[in-house]
Amino acid sequence: MGKRNITLKDLSERLGFSVSTISRALKDHHDISQETKYKVQQLAKKLNYIPNYSAQSLKNSQTKTIGVIIPNLLLDFSSKIINGMIHQSRKEGYRLVISESGHSPDLEKDILENMIRSGVDGILLSLTNNTKNIDHVLLAKEKCPIVLYDKVSDKIPCTRIIVDNETGAYNATKHLIDQGRKKIVFIKGTDHSFNAKKRFEGYLRALKDRQIKVDKNLIPQCGTVCIQEGTKLVNQMISKRIEFDAIFAVTDDVAIGAIKALKKHNIIIPKQVAVVGFSNSKSTTIIEPNLTSVDQPGYTIGIKAIEYLLKELKLAHQTEHLLRTTPKTIELKTNLIKRESS
Amino acid sequence: MGKRNITLKDLSERLGFSVSTISRALKDHHDISQETKYKVQQLAKKLNYIPNYSAQSLKNSQTKTIGVIIPNLLLDFSSKIINGMIHQSRKEGYRLVISESGHSPDLEKDILENMIRSGVDGILLSLTNNTKNIDHVLLAKEKCPIVLYDKVSDKIPCTRIIVDNETGAYNATKHLIDQGRKKIVFIKGTDHSFNAKKRFEGYLRALKDRQIKVDKNLIPQCGTVCIQEGTKLVNQMISKRIEFDAIFAVTDDVAIGAIKALKKHNIIIPKQVAVVGFSNSKSTTIIEPNLTSVDQPGYTIGIKAIEYLLKELKLAHQTEHLLRTTPKTIELKTNLIKRESS
DNA sequence: GTGAATTATGCAAACGATTGCGGGACTTTA
DNA sequence: TAAAGTCCCGCAATCGTTTGCATAATTCAC
Fold first, then answer.
1. Does residue A7 lie within 7 Å of nucleic acid chain D, judged by its CB?
2. Does residue B59 lie within 7 Å of nucleic acid chain D, judged by its CB?
3. Model-level pTM?
4. For each successive 10 residues of chain A (342 residues), what is the average pLDDT?
């Protein structure tokens, strides 16, 4: 602004070449002579020519932008994922348009539609905890490639980038069992969360492996997944005089809430009760005792999500239409970080 | 895309109207008869017509997207800011392209240029802690409106959205003084950080107001601003047998590091030493004792940043060129949250 | 020295939407 | 009945870039 941006036409007028020659010269087309290329490229540099993105998008019908939908940005884990996406997309020459659904399915739907209207080449989607109806996703999928990450659903036939929640939870539980813990509480997440379900399955498998029988009293369930809820549930168990020697919580926040409750009742961690969380968020090293937790490779999720989406974009671009590749599921390994709480 | 997107031309062919009539009918132009409008709008809805963003951008020479550059996403405060931006921009019909500079001036410069190439209408910029040379920003400012937020510089003549760091620090320090604390440590941030400087000034003013003289021994300085650094500095002071009865840290992380050091030395908080941080991050309620901290309205910063940038965009659009409005500085109030640590 | 191949460039349509201008059909006014 | 006004609508240019095709100039082979 100030003054208008330089265009191909400007260059063409200054140099006496046609616009098409300028265009080709700038992209080193073999039809153009070295001399001409040189002149054009020099002038372009001198005048700081910047190709008009919109015009290119219009012509090439690709916007080089990727939409990202995330339920909650205010989590360490989310930031890590976004970070990976930012870095990888930058490397690949794509822009990222990021929006937050705040765990509202309606907003999710709206954002999805909006992104498609505003012309993104593809979308990275992590579902709301409350997304039950998935029609809007299926519909969106008809218009542009979608890759699911972290919070996924097996009802949506898209490539999925997730962590191996089941094995992560299995290892965490086994870690507790190996210490001789027998009465291991599992604080469950909400019911229709894919991840929460997998973590529960991991817990169950570990118990089964070691022939510990499942005690429903030891498996309270969160309404919302947060610190307060962890505290509340553990308080309840204590006041019901339910006995336990370990707690594995579906989430770090819940685990931290649990720790707070235990400390309030002067229960010694990890001597009397060991605690393990899930996510390895920053808080794990701030709470005392430091919380053992299952680390999820958020940054890598971000990277992979971009990678796989771009693969699909390239395929779609070659074949000139959305193809129904059999969706893959990429499961990333978790890593149990042992700390003072266990 | 399976099948091509519907265009105005498609509608025009189906209905027998010209493309221009279709265009006008869709935007409720008064030149078009009710009947025609109805027909067009019906068919558009039925076929799910989506105007081509790139074409509109090209024609209107505005992309309806805003670039956001942030030094570090992995902070509660950053997430809050981004959140505010996301919500406000959405409300105003703008998209957000977000990138992270990782506190690298080179990357900052590169991202800035890239955003301008890729055609954003305006940019929201929070500077790197290491940005000394600001030429790239001034240069970018010639091409598109920039609003600075949070980490700003007074050398750049742009509108600034910041919190009132000085008053925040002043109040925090006064709070400590009011409790009878006399030997108040201030753990300083890096030297050329605008915010850190202001916080230090607030600290100094409070001391001056209460006629406490400044003791350089009580003002250690961070290399990098993090937990470890806080611990290290406090450990040093203790081993040097420097006496103090309160610590005000430039950042929550530093304050948390300080608390860890104090606890390790069995110093009772807040009885022997009170601690106050800055930012009111999530960790403040996880560390024990809970940390008193200066709350910064991150979400509001995000909102305001978008608001003021859009104001400038509208002005620029009216006057058809970048105008040098005298840049305003919007200072948002902070709020001291008192907790157990003081 | 003629035809073919190569090299370098320009023409013009296309991408999809917007908009100033012009004009036909119809109604109103004097 | 002629002039003026109103209402609807289409033509065509435009935004900046890309690209298939045509064309002109030059070179090569025989």
1. yes
2. yes
3. 0.92
4. 78 92 91 89 93 95 96 94 96 95 95 94 95 92 94 94 97 96 95 92 96 95 94 96 96 97 96 96 95 97 97 79 76 97 92
